[in-house]
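Dear all,

This email documents one entry for the complex benchmark we are building for the journal club exercise. For each entry we list the sequence lines for every component of the assembly. Then comes the predicted three-dimensional structure of the complex as a token string, followed by one or two observations. Please use this as the template for your own entries, and keep the labels exactly as they appear.
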Amino acid sequence: MNTSHFPRLDLNADVVTLTAALVDIPSESKDEGQIADAVEDALESVGHLSVDRENNTVVARTHLDRTERVLIGGHLDTVPSAGNLPHRLADGYLHGLGSCDMKGGVAVSLRLAQRLANPKRDVTYVYYECEEIESKFNGLKMLADRRPELLLADFAILMEPSNAGVEAGCQGTLRAKVHTVGTRAHSARAWLGENAVHQAAEILTRLGAYEPARVTIDGLEYREGLNAVGIAGGVAGNVIPDECVVTVNYRFAPNMSTTAAEDHVRQVFDGYRVEVVDLAPGALPGMALPAAQAFIAAVGGEPQPKFGWTDVARFAELGIPAVNYGPGDPSLAHAADERVPIAELVACEDRMVHWLTRDR
Amino acid sequence: MNTSHFPRLDLNADVVTLTAALVDIPSESKDEGQIADAVEDALESVGHLSVDRENNTVVARTHLDRTERVLIGGHLDTVPSAGNLPHRLADGYLHGLGSCDMKGGVAVSLRLAQRLANPKRDVTYVYYECEEIESKFNGLKMLADRRPELLLADFAILMEPSNAGVEAGCQGTLRAKVHTVGTRAHSARAWLGENAVHQAAEILTRLGAYEPARVTIDGLEYREGLNAVGIAGGVAGNVIPDECVVTVNYRFAPNMSTTAAEDHVRQVFDGYRVEVVDLAPGALPGMALPAAQAFIAAVGGEPQPKFGWTDVARFAELGIPAVNYGPGDPSLAHAADERVPIAELVACEDRMVHWLTRDR
């Protein structure tokens, strides 16, 4: 008798069907309980894997005593819905929230976990929570803090969308709140107060005029960005607001330190109170590392720069070489028309199987 | 046995003590249940009054068959707290949320209701909810719709703060949402999206540059105003926002129609989608009306213009002449340092008793 309340995943289904099933389980950050239950349940039925779980993060491992262990990672969470659920198939794409970022990559990883009872390398499959929000909630960070033994590996592949090509390194990310302060008054006597929302005009004007840098490293061009990702102010419909907060996100090239990034943002918003709320370093592309070169040789193609922050940076901090490799166009991540090409889902699965099963 | 859970009000206490007790019952708009219970309970123990209640609005009336009936009104709700609770007494003032707008006036009215068993005019005391938010929730509007017989009167006095002098007419108020629309994208690839929050810079710049009109009517100068009272935008910390909403409040002189007010706001924000969410006409000062002149003669002083919107406009629509008269400086309404002069509480009570008990 099946009494559980989460959807079942069939790991024997093809990668497209599996991606669709994952998309149709809503999993906005901090609400990954149901999808983690489904993933854990499906993996526990795979005989050649041991399964561990911490909160809503699931780890499955082979134990074949191979000389090399690779980690294949993907996050289970998505940004909030933009009215793009459930999934639909059209024009060679699977459409829907998270299809690209990154349930397609998770589906490939789950297919590998199910299919490969005897890979040439030991594999650690990691399915984790809270990648899309402040890094303090990140499931991979939680594992590094609480269960570091589960992350031991010689090389890591993050299956974030990369157009089924290798994307190297990643940019750093900083989030800050920029504050204006005014004086409350009744809005029928506005001249007695000072409007903090009106003051935010200057902050938004600076953002609109900002010219982001382009930085070339190892032949790869990284594009920076500084943007408002939120704004909030207001007390009541008849009160001159005494506070307004603009939340900004700075994406900086991997050769910039977190200290330099913070200094830069404080300089841009000189004259305002700047409160840094989230800060994660980038990762240099590391194209010269042997493990990276071997992987690139196996899957083919020209490496590209990674613009978005990914947990590649976290592996860099742990001393594990890592690259991004997964299905989907990262430009469509978080877009309302998010989608993943069916051909890339299939190609990624094939190439990863090839890499993990061929002789060295 | 007292089994009820609301605070008790002692209407025999002096007006300062009574104001303090009212301030210490939190009553933000839509949360007036406790204060309405307390007011209803206190009035029911006054033998010479009949008491009615609709939702959180309480009406108490004398029935002396006088030739004239006057209505004395005050709202029970406040704007949200600015950390200014509970009340405190200092320097001749009673400080605290709602002390000025308008629990001081409510306390004066409750004292009159308790003291005057035999006034020269029949009196209808109204204590109502939801004055500080959109007019559709307004308790006086609700009475006009559901129980209009309770509002029958020859003249009305709203005890809104007016420095214990008569303030005439009131300005109209319009609230609108001004929208910007962009395109979502991952904030690491901002160039693929269009930032709706950045676009709001122009709206805020127009607001900052706006020059409000001054309009003289019956010798009284009204000062208009157009201000942001709120702003909101943002999807997630790593998404370029596709929408931003600036809520603006336009206060317009009493000789401007609601249609003209709406046209004006649409013109100021030309190029943006403008959604009017709240619109209430002003009231002309009506200084020539005999009832107004008689009241002014009784309480003394020079009438002043009322800048804020008050329910005087609602009485104007019902055909009942009305003025504002109450303790407290309206400039301090909704301010964090809101307070009411103790001397004005006492003076208002004295003058109203005088007016209601003297021979004509």
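Observations: The longest helix of chain A spans residues 99-115. Chain A touches chain B through 65 residues (CB under 8 Å).
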